[in-house]
Amino acid sequence: MTEDFTEVQIQRYARHILLPQVGGQGQQKLLNSKVLVVGAGGLGSPVLMYLAAAGVGTLGIVDDDVVDISNLQRQIVHSTGRVGVSKVESAEVALHAINPDVRLVPHKERITAENALELISQYDLVTDGSDNFATRFLVNDAAYFARKPLVSGAILRFDGQIATFKNYPGGDAEGPCYRCIFREPPPPGQIPSCSEAGVLGALCGTVGSLQATEILKELLGIGTSLSGTLMVYDALEAQFRTIRVKRDPGCPLCGESPTIKDLSLHETVPEGSCHG
Fold first, then answer.
1. Would you say 186 and 170 are in contact if contact means Cβ atoms under 8 Å apart?
2. Percent over 70 (pLDDT), the chain
3. What CA–CA distances, in Å, run from 246 to 197, 200, 226, 227?
4. Half-sphere exposure of 251 (CA within 13 A, CB side)
5. pLDDT above 90 for 268
6. Which residue of 122, 136, 247, 265 has the fewest CB atoms within a 10 Å radius of its CB?
7. Does the structure show a pLDDT above 50 at 272?
8. Is 87 helix (H, G, I), strand (E, B) or coil?
9. pLDDT-based confidence at 121, cuts 50/70/90?
């Protein structure tokens, strides 16, 4: 299979090609894959960088924000020299420097009920690195309707969580969606954002790297999927926990009598809310 690669690609992806679970065929699969990354912030940064380095052929980046100096403590895809530049443009610069093989598709816009389904439908998989519940619920619902796997990450202070959701028709029928775990967004102000409560910068790298690993596994079809499992990381205690979660028959999205039939019930996601 390596005969389909250039000499530079063989050298670049050599450590993948050596893996029996990946090989040349798997690397070609990655090069043909398309992933949409929602948020080019704390989680999106390591996700984008590792997926670009791995040779995922097309990366879509959704973010309408600009780089602020307060981002640089954790959003490692950006740099001091690009403060004031849009995050999608800043990320493009960094990712092209890592791997010119990768096609980058900038979506310099907010993800909303009006565009979410169209955006996600263009890709093989979507990953959510947003920092608010409105976006998380919207991306979950749109991924379900588009029948696309969703790898979700969240962080706050010293804690992180990662999960994979693919219980759409034709996917993991026993696995949950995000709403099976969290039925609806909490009231505004009940749970603070990272800008209000803080976050350990390196935690974003830990959780984002785990997201990237799970994305690559899903694209390659290898290993054990996190579908049906919520992985929780406590950085202060240096502990990982995995919690088994089943599909909820009463879920309003994927349950036996769903009340959510499309994305029309979602409010527009607030400005600047697609970054960590």
1. no
2. 96
3. 31, 31, 12, 9
4. 23
5. no
6. 265
7. no
8. helix
9. very high
Read off the pLDDT band of 273 (50, 70, 90).
Answer: very low
**Residue 59 and residue 45: Cα distance in Å, rounded?**
12
35, exposed or middle or buried, with CB in 10 Å at 0-12, 13-18, 19+?
A: buried
Q: Would you say 40 and 275 are in contact if contact means Cβ atoms under 8 Å apart?
A: yes
Cα–Cα distance between 104 and 107 in angstroms, integer?
10
Q: Are the beta carbons of 60 and 148 closer than 8 angstroms?
A: no
Q: Check whether 116 has a pLDDT greater than 80.
A: yes
Residue 86 has pLDDT above 50, yes or no: yes
At 183, list the tokens.
């039925």
Strands 239-244 and 229-234, how do they pair? antiparallel
Kindly state the DSSP code that residue 66 receives in the 8-state scheme. Answer: B
Task: Name the residue with tokens 């390596």.
Answer: 2
Alpha-helical (H) ranges within 152-200 are: 178-181, 194-197
Tell me the pLDDT of the chain averaged across its residues.
93
E-state strands within 33-116: 34-38, 58-62, 103-107
Is the pLDDT at 274 greater than 60, yes or no? Answer: no
- Give the distance, in angstroms, between the CA of residue 94 and the centroid of all CA atoms in the same chain: 18
| CA-atom Rg of the chain in angstroms | 18
Question: What does the pLDDT read at residue 276?
Answer: 53
Q: Which domains does the chain have, with CATH numbers?
A: 16-244 (3.40.50.720)
Which segments within the chain are labelled E, that is strand?
A: 34-38, 58-62, 103-107, 125-128, 150-156, 159-165, 229-234, 239-244
Instruction: Write the single-letter amino acid at 49.
Output: M
Amino acid at position 197, single letter: A
pLDDT (mean) for 235-261: 95
Terminal Cα-to-Cα distance of the chain (whole angstroms): 39
| Separation between Cα atoms, residue 89 and residue 65, nearest integer Å | 10
